[in-house]
Amino acid sequence: MTNINLNDLLISVPQSANDNLTATLISDEQRPAFWPQHFGCIPQWIVLEPCIFGWMDRLCADYSGGIWQFFTLSNGGAFMAPDSDSDEKWSLFNSMNGNGGELSAEAAGIAVCLMAYSHHACRTECDAMTEHCYRLRDYALHHPECNAIMHIID
């Protein structure tokens, strides 16, 4: 398996294939099964959640921990995003590419999950992890904040 370049994730996707992608917030009762259910076949899946927290800490100076929400995607993907009671934006800056932006909690979660998923796919050389990255990328490409997400992960 070759390394995933996040820019390569921007390949053209047929419009009709992903027009109806939806994210569903999972209930508190479903949270314990989230990681094993969606990522259990992936080597070292247990480190994904702390890696996502680490990416958020690295990219967002104002991040200081907190509760996160878990989402499933209609294409089989899954991601998490910081819980937010308001429409307040999260300021993210990627020092590795010099790009920054103001993102909603969901868009910030998508960006940091894409970073973590890509790095985990490269580290484990696991095709199933690569598929998770592509599924989330497909959702991100149709997200209202697509441009901001893509600038952060570029």
Write the layout of secondary structure elements.
Blueprint: H1 15-18, E1 23-25, H2 31-39, H3 48-59, E2 68-73, E3 78-82, E4 90-94, E5 99-103, H4 105-124, H5 127-141, H6 146-153
Concise summary:
By secondary structure, the protein is of the alpha+beta class.
What does this structure look like?
With about 150 residues, the protein is an alpha+beta fold. The chain contains six helices and five strands; from the N terminus they run αβααββββααα. It has a three-stranded antiparallel beta sheet with strand order 1-2-3. The model is unreliable at about 10-15 (pLDDT under 50).
- Shape category: globular
Q: Mind describing the biggest β-sheet?
A: 3 strands, antiparallel
Fraction in beta strands: 15-25%
**Largest sheet, order of strands side by side?**
1-2-3
Mean of pLDDT: 90
Our measurement of the CA-to-CA distance between the termini, rounded to an integer number of angstroms, reads 21 Å
* Poorly predicted regions: 9-17
- The radius of gyration is 14 Å
Spell the H/E element sequence.
Answer: HEHHEEEEHHH
Q: Considering DSSP H and I runs of 4 or more, what fraction of the residues is helical? A: 40-55%
Structural class category: alpha+beta
Number of helices: 6
Number of strands: 5
